[in-house]
Amino acid sequence: MKKSQRLKVIIDLHARQERDALEALGISQQKLQEQQAQLENLQSYRLDYLGKFAVRQQAGINISQLMEFRAFADKLDQAIESQQQTVSNHEREVQRARKRWEDAHQRTKSLQKVSDLALVEEMKVEQKREQAEQDDRAARSGRKDGTGSA
């Protein structure tokens, strides 16, 4: 088996790993977008809740309603903080997935260059061999015709 053929098997394996890494990157990016949307929803809900509470507060509320508001607002704040941490974790995962894909892509490209060089070298060797065969045939043909030099 020629070197270029052996390299092709390795390149195909690395190309498959690169595709898998790219797919994993896509999945990570999708999850990040979902988590960011969830964070935006929580933040929007909190703003709406605070706005509605401000209107109700102007109309007058009792202490128990104020305590319930504060307790719920604290829970919303905790949920937002937790979601921000989740988003940060997913952002780091996207960066790791992107790095894995870039590394795999670079390996595949490098191996492809090595394979291309091996193929060029194999073609040169083959051309030299064919040229030598043609020269040999021409020399034998010339001797058979009696036109060979003495």
From TrEMBL:
- Transmembrane ranges, per UniProt, are none
- PANTHER family assigned to the protein according to its UniProt record, in alphabetical order: FLAGELLAR FLIJ PROTEIN (PTHR38786:SF1)
What is the protein name for this chain?
A: Flagellar FliJ protein
Q: How does it sit in the membrane?
A: Peripheral membrane protein
> Which compartments does it reside in?
Cell membrane
Q: Composition bias, kind Basic and acidic residues: at what positions?
A: 89-106
> Which region ranges are annotated with the description Disordered?
83-113, 125-150
What GO CC terms are in its UniProt record? bacterial-type flagellum; plasma membrane
Q: What is its main location?
A: membrane
Annotated source species: Methylomonas methanica
